[in-house]
C-alpha cells in the first residue's frame, strides 16, 4: 500500500508566536504534518525555555536547559534564530513569509508593523498568505491595546466566578483552573480557523487575516453557562464540584476517598439508586426526574452523601460501573499516566532528543485511520535548524547567512 501524505504535508507555517496560545496552535498544525518554522530571539528564544524547573533530564539524569513547559508545546517544529528588530532580520522574515502558507503571531496589536511583518505588509507580498493574529482582546474595541494573560482573562471572562466551592462553605472563593485553559482553547480555535482559511484559499486562491482573541475564546468556552444566564437573566454562581443543571453530578466522599458520580439522565439515576441500595430514592416524587432533582438538590444530595460515606471508594466504583452509571476516581497526574486506558491509548510519547536522551511529551489526541499523527522530531533546541531552513527555503548558504545575519 502506498504511504499516504500527512493531512497538512506541503503546508509551511512561519511561527512568530511564543509562550502558549500561539505555540499550542502551531504544534497542532505541526502534528498534522505542516512544516512549522519557529522564529526565536537569538540567545534567548521562547520565554518558556526558561520557565523551570522542572527541566528535561540528560542521559545521566542531570537537568538540561530544556524546560518541561517548553517541551509541552513545541514538538515537530524547526527552530531558527533571527532578530526581527534588525532591518536585515526583518527582511529575511519577509522573504520567508513569501514562501509560507500561514503566519501565526501573538504580538500586541500593531506591534509587528514597525518591522514590516504585519498583515498588510505581508499580504502585499503574498496575497495567498493566511495570517493569524492571537491577542488578549482582539484587533479592535476599547481593550485592543492591552496585554492579555490567561490568568487575568479567566477572571475577566467569568470562569473564576463559576469555579470553586460554593459561597458560605469552607474554602469558598473564586478559583482559577489548574491549567491555562484560556491559552489552550485559544490555540485550538486558532487551529480550526487556520484550517478553514486554508480550505477557503483552495477555492479562491486568497489568504486572509484571522483575528483570534483570548477573551473571545474564553467567553465562548463558557458554553451552557452563558446560555443559563441568557435564558434566566441570573448569573451562574460557583457550585463547587456539582453541576449547575444536572443532579446528582458531583463528587461524593466514600469512607476511604472520593469518587465522581455523573448521572446524565433519569435511567442512569435510577440505576445509581439501585446500585447503592436505595431504590426508594428512584421512585420518590421529589426526585423522579432531573428537573425536580435540581429543584430539590440539597435534600437529595444530603441523603446520598450519608449513604456514600458508608462504603469504600473502589467498591462503589465497581458497583456503578457494573450497571453503566458514569463514575470515576479522582487521580493525580502520576495516576493518570499509570491508568491502563491511558497506557493503551499511548498518551505518553518519548521522542529522541539531540541531547542524547528522550523528551517525554503528551501524545496528540487527534486520531486518523489513514493519515495518523507522526512524531517526527522532539521540541527543537534554540536555533537548531537556522542553517537548514534558510538554505532549504531561501537558498542561503553559510557565507550569505553570516553576511546578512552575522551568524
Automatic annotation (TrEMBL):
It comes from the Bacteria. Coiled coil: none annotated. PANTHER family: SUCCINATE--HYDROXYMETHYLGLUTARATE COA-TRANSFERASE. GO terms for molecular function: CoA-transferase activity. This is Crotonobetainyl-CoA:carnitine CoA-transferase CaiB-like acyl-CoA transferase. Keywords: Transferase. The keyword Glycosyltransferase does not apply. Signal peptide: none annotated. Pfam families: CoA_transf_3 (PF02515). Transmembrane segments: none annotated.
Amino acid at each position: 500500500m502506498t504511504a499516504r501524505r500527512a493531512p497538512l504535508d506541503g503546508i509551511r507555517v512561519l511561527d512568530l508566536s511564543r509562550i502558549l496560545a500561539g505555540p499550542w496552535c502551531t504544534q497542532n498544525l505541526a502534528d498534522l504534518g505542516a512544516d512549522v518554522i519557529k522564529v526565536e530571539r537569538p540567545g534567548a528564544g521562547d520565554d518558556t525555555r526558561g520557565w523551570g524547573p522542572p527541566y528535561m533530564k540528560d542521559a545521566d539524569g542531570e537537568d538540561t536547559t530544556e524546560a518541561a513547559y517548553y517541551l509541552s508545546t513545541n514538538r515537530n517544529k524547526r527552530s531558527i534564530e533571527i532578530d526581527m528588530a534588525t532591518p536585515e532580520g526583518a527582511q529575511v522574515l519577509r522573504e520567508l513569509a513569501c514562501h509560507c502558507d500561514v503566519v501565526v503571531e501573538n504580538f500586541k496589536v500593531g506591534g509587528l508593523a514597525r518591522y514590516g511583518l504585519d498583515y498588510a505588509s505581508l499580504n502585499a507580498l503574498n496575497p495567498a498568505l493566511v495570517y493569524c493574529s492571537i491577542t488578549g482582546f482582539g484587533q479592535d474595541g476599547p481593550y485592543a491595546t492591552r496585554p492579555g494573560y490567561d490568568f487575568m482573562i479567566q477572571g475577566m471572562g467569568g470562569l473564576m466566578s463559576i469555579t470553586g466551592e460554593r459561597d458560605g462553605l469552607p474554602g469558598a472563593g473564586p478559583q482559577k483552573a489548574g491549567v491555562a485553559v484560556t491559552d489552550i482553547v485559544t490555540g485550538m480555535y486558532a487551529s480550526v480557523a487556520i484550517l478553514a482559511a486554508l480550505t477557503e484559499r483552495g477555492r479562491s486562491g486568497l489568504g486572509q487575516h484571522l483575528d483570534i482573541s483570548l477573551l473571545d475564546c474564553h467567553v465562548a468556552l463558557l458554553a451552557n453557562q452563558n446560555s443559563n444566564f441568557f435564558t434566566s437573566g441570573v448569573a451562574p454562581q460557583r457550585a463547587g464540584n456539582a453541576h449547575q443543571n444536572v443532579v446528582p453530578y458531583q463528587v461524593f466522599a466514600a469512607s476511604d476517598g472520593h469518587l465522581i458520580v455523573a448521572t446524565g439522565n433519569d435511567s442512569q439515576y435510577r440505576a445509581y439508586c439501585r446500585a447503592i441500595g436505595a431504590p426508594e430514592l428512584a421512585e420518590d416524587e421529589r426526585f423522579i426526574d432531573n428537573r425536580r432533582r435540581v429543584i430539590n438538590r440539597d435534600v437529595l444530595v444530603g441523603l446520598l452523601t450519608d449513604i456514600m460515606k458508608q462504603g469504600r471508594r473502589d467498591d462503589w466504583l465497581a458497583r456503578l460501573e457494573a450497571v453503566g452509571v458514569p463514575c470515576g476516581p479522582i487521580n493525580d497526574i502520576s495516576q493518570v499516566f499509570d491508568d491502563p486506558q491511558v497506557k493503551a491509548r499511548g498518551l505518553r510519547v518519548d521522542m529522541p532528543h539531540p541531547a542524547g536522551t528522550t523528551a517525554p511529551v503528551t501524545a496528540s489526541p487527534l486520531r486518523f485511520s489513514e493519515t495518523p499523527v507522526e512524531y517526527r522530531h522532539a521540541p527543537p533546541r534554540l536555533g537548531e535548524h537556522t542553517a537548514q531552513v534558510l538554505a532549504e527555503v531561501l537558498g542561503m548558504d553559510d557565507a550569505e547567512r553570516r553576511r546578512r545575519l552575522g551568524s
